Amino acid sequence: MSKFTKLALSLSCFLPLFFIFGAENFCAAYCSFSAVENKNLFQSLLNQSECFLFNTGLFFVWLALFVIGVTGIICFRKSFLKADRLSKETVVLTKAENITADYYFTYFSLFVISFFGVDPTKLKDILIFAIIMVLIIWVYVANEMYFVNPVLNIVGYKSFSIVYHKSFSANNAGEKEVHLFEIKVFSKEPLNRMSGEKVFVTFSPHDFSVCYPVSKKKQ
What we know:
Elements: H1 3-11, H2 15-32, H3 41-46, H4 50-82, E1 89-98, H5 100-112, H6 123-142, H7 150-154, E2 158-169, E3 176-187, E4 198-202, E5 209-213, H8 214-218
Parallel strand pairs: 3-5
Antiparallel strand pairs: 1-2, 1-4, 2-3, 4-5
């Protein structure tokens, strides 16, 4: 992934907060707007209070960040869909566990609780939020934690820990040994209900690889 995609995908973790904060600033700006008689819209905007200008400016900041975050989701989706055209391997699922909920708990403890008391209409709260957000984004990008992102689950991507087996020739007599491997994958399929089935895995250098059923590929 490009640096922009990594940054945008990391920002997409904040999409619910950007939406909530943007809505609060929009409402605050709307309530503080005062019409000026005999003046056009541009002149009216220049004569508005600092409260209106502050909240309007922040609304557009949240809007821009929201758009960048959505772009990250779109870029991820494109790379996800391209995975079936990359080098892949057919494996047989032994076990699959849906671990999406584990990341939800991490998300809520890290984001929702941390920023529950932030008032986006106050400069002090915004500065604190910005500093914490920069630190979190830096950790996300440096440690490739883009997948700790429940927004991806909202658009259909689930996280699984899967165990699959492969057979290897043990000797010249044709005997084979079965080896088990465990990896984390993203999939839009209910892998936890597909034990014993063959699936394609496109391995990734990141924490999660991509998994999809062989049956759909053949159709």
